[in-house]
Design brief:
This protein is of the alpha+beta class. The protein has three domains: 217 residues, Rossmann fold (3-Layer(aba) Sandwich); 76 residues, Chorismate Mutase Domain, subunit A; 115 residues, no CATH class. The protein has 13 helices and 20 strands. A hairpin with a 2-residue loop joins strand 8 and strand 9. The C terminus is likely disordered.
Amino acid sequence: MPKLDPARLADALSELDSVRRCWVAYSGGLDSEVLLTALSEVRERLPGELAAVHVDHGLHPRSAVWASRCRTRCEVLGLTCEVRPLGLRPIPGESLEALAREARYDAFVDLLDPDDLLLTAHHQDDQAETLLLALLRGGGVQGLASMPRILPLGAGRLVRPLLGLPRAALMDFADARGLDWIQDPSNDHLSFDRNYLRHRVMPLLRARWPSCAATLSRSAGHCAEAADLVDELADRVLADIPGGRPGTLSIRALLDLGRPLRAGVVRRWLKLGGFRPPDSRHLARILDEMLVARADANPQVLWSGCEVRRYRDDLFVLQPLPRAPAPDSALPWSIGQGTHSLQLPEPLGRLEWRPEAAGSGGRRLRVGFGRSTLTCRSSAGRPSRALKKLFQDAGIPGWLRAYVPLVFEGETLIAIAGVCACAPDEGASAGAEIRWTGHPWEAWLPQPGRDSS
């Protein structure tokens, strides 16, 4: 059986470029206790300053005691210990495992600066369990690839330096050093899928196949290679698709592909956009419903932190849309001399007024939303047109129009923010450019003066 060698851990970490700090994800349990102790023995050989971060989920009555114990242990080792309290409040029916994991990694993302590493104590047995869980959930090669050794996380990187070692090697290290660790009783609750595998399934597998953790981890490595191959092929396809607006993907180009490649391209497109890839059910809805929907339909697929919609020949990916402003809502806006801005409610960004001529100060405006039955004359000498038609000409999706600010002076519509100014009457010209910036959909608007064809 391989042994845990602190010097080899330090050498492997030293091969990484541009490291400022090495944060150990320190729960105080066996695995993280071993990792922190091992690295503290070779701290002078590490590529960056060694420190610990403890996430207090607030789910156990003794969680504050555990946080204090981790601080004390780090003081003994001469290390900084950052404690991040979460205070989770799960709702009935919500997966506690998933909630805790997502909140924990959100805390890690918030912690990491550029050139920081987050070191977790995942080992070979964890990898085998992750593969089995993915199989039982019907995962594809991306899911079966399980846990990579290194991946980006926030502004830094997540590294799993113990992934090639069995849990028994960590136990041997702890016994040899006489280590103590926190015993979290939730690790024995068989209602959690991973605990059930660990305590009931894996012992049976080891009794028949003693090296099952190593061989399952090897299979995960093969799946990771296959997943990399799919991503490489998808990257080539995406590079050949004519450039559209950011965050969009041509449906026509997707329909020219076979279904397996189409699925890989959609997954890769979402991943490159910074979104969590969909599970097989949501992916099937994108492929089987959205791509073949009528061009004037409004299909959508929504999962955690991600929303995919369709408009004309494009798929759009975005953060889930917030509640649309009420059509009868109104925000007052007083204009002084020169450029003047108005901060809109989150996440709607802000408006900037840029008068074309002097003497535009002292105007009292109001901002409304969602009144698509109004009309606007986009330039002098042109007839008034319905907002719906102007939105269509500008290529603004129907599901986004309720969020576009409409600027009024009195009862007169003078601008559609991000689209065009409105001439108040047939013989007048529009007197201001109103830009709409700082919102999530900026790349999908023409902005005044920009070609919207």
